[in-house]
Amino acid sequence: MNFELAKPTTSGIASIPSNKASVMSKVSLKNLIKKHSKSLGFDLVGFSPIDVNDEAFAQYKNWLQNEFEADMSYMSEEARAQKRSSADNLLENAKTVISLAVNYYHDQPPLPKNHGRIARYAYGRDYHKTISKNLKKLEEFIQENTNGKTISYVDTGPILERTFATQAGLGFIGKNTCLITDEFGSWVFLAEIITNLEIQPRGPKSPTCKKINPGVKCGSCTKCIDACPTGAIKRLPNGTYAIDANLCLSYHTIENREPSLPPKIQKAIHKTKRIFGCDICQEVCPHNCRAKSAHANTATTPKPIAGSSLPLAKIASLKTDEEFTKAFAGSPIMRAKRKNLQRNAGYLT
Ligand code: B12
Ligand code: SF4
Ligand code: SF4
């Protein structure tokens, strides 16, 4: 997924009484941000220094060298690629990256006949829109209480979000390359606020899963690699793992704009019925025993737009882009465009 072409939110220096800023100790600011982020619906928050560690940046360069980015040129373009080495390239005099995570898990009912499966992240309103709104509020809160500058991203800029999340102590990277948290497994969206304020990095974690020893990461498990329908999870010579987007159903069903997909991908879509995104390498992950329904509270359950599946007949019946927009306005499905959603659905019949 990527929304890099969207504009990040920037905020200037707040005019606040100077006594307010001087009273604010670094520790209380950290606690205030933690508390306020929770009240805005962020489930996890952590703090890290601004530089991406060398190993993680090398991992990204390695991914590019292997041409695993497929046609996602926003991932390989040189100037943008270099920016990913440090948050300092995104905000002048940056000192801290605040990493945030939002749980989005929900159970999916069995797939009805003649329907295509939609990835969980695309159930309701686009998370770029919902999270950006709350990021903005959190930035305003920080400004009201300090004289700091901030800039924020949610899948919207040249920033290695998973790496910053690990550096901030939110979780670890599994072989499926997802950020896996102790609290919610991998079913979390990530977002960041970069600031020129110095905030002490990281925070204590509170492992909660009873079925899995929190100290254990992937170990010898290979469930995601075995379950991936196209072999997209690659083991690199250095023993780490990377997704080859050229083989990934998520890439092909959302990002690929070609009128026809490669035969191997067509077959995998036919078999798995994934017409928008793919959750397979997360569904099989034992760490996702930690999943908690984000829809458990009916008061906050998002209104479905695409929901968990779509009838193939409904997709085929959308004759114009206007009809498509009417059906999916505000949903992540809009990114695929009508033609590509219809292309994907066509492989199920
Ligand atoms: C491009 C992209 C994609 C591409 C490529 C995915 C990939 N794995 O590279 C495609 C289209 C395939 C994709 C698919 C999905 N995506 Co996407 N995607 C992105 C995007 C825009 C950039 C990712 C990137 O930089 N890839 C390059 C690789 C090399 O980087 P990376 O995966 O982040 O891995 C880094 C770290 O893990 C670390 N690392 C990995 N192994 C190791 C080992 C060691 C030893 C060290 C030190 C470091 C290290 O180094 C890497 C580089 O820093 C991010 C948003 C962002 N700006 O970060 C969202 C993002 C990664 N996507 C996200 C999601 C939700 C998905 C899907 C689940 C959507 C779906 N259901 O279809 C799938 C998951 C597929 C998968 N298993 O990764 C979330 C992930 C949340 C999470 N819990 O991890 C993100 C963070 C968006 C968001 N803001 O929430 N995505
Ligand atoms: S998202 Fe699907 S296709 Fe992509 S790596 Fe995971 S299981 Fe494989
Ligand atoms: S399925 Fe197994 S190998 Fe894959 S990320 Fe989860 S624990 Fe790690």
Mean pLDDT: 90
Strand content: 5-15%
Strand order in the largest sheet:
1-5-8-3-2
Radius of gyration: 20 Å
Query: What class would the helix/strand composition place it in?
Result: alpha+beta
Please bin the fraction of helical residues. 25-40%
The count of helical stretches stands at 14
Order of helices and strands: EHHEHHHEEHEHEEEHEEHHEHEHHH
Question: In angstroms, what separates the terminal alpha carbons?
Answer: 26 Å
Molecules bound to protein? cobalamin, iron/sulfur cluster
The number of distinct structural domains comes to: 2
Q: Can you describe this structure?
A:
The protein folds into two domains: 9-105 and 127-195, no CATH class; 223-346, no CATH class. Strand 9 and strand 10 (241-243) form a beta hairpin. It has helices at residues 18-23, 26-39, 54-65, 73-76, 78-83, 127-145, 161-167, 223-227, 249-255, 263-272, 280-283, 312-317, 321-328, 337-346, and strands spanning 9-11, 44-48, 96-103, 115-118, 150-153, 172-173, 179-180, 188-195, 233-235, 241-243, 274-276, 309-311. Helix 2 packs antiparallel against helix 6 (127-145). Residues 5-23 and 206-212 have low confidence and may be disordered. By secondary structure, the protein is of the alpha+beta class. A five-stranded antiparallel β-sheet has the order 1-5-8-3-2, sandwiched between helices. Strands 11-4-12 form a three-stranded mixed β-sheet. A two-stranded antiparallel ribbon has the order 6-7. One iron/sulfur cluster (SF4) is lined by residues 176, 228-230, 232-233, 243, 248-250, 278, 280-281.
